[in-house]
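User: Show me a protein chain along with its predicted structure.
Assistant: Here is one chain, sequence first, then structure tokens.
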Amino acid sequence: MKRKTITIREDQDEWIEEQHLNLSSFVRDKLDELIEERS
């Protein structure tokens, strides 16, 4: 696995924390969706 750094706004960070969202997993899932759509 590769590591990447992203920048998010403070309000986004608060929302992610409130939702107990795993950001890495979320981003990987969304990227997979986009890759599949464009294939």
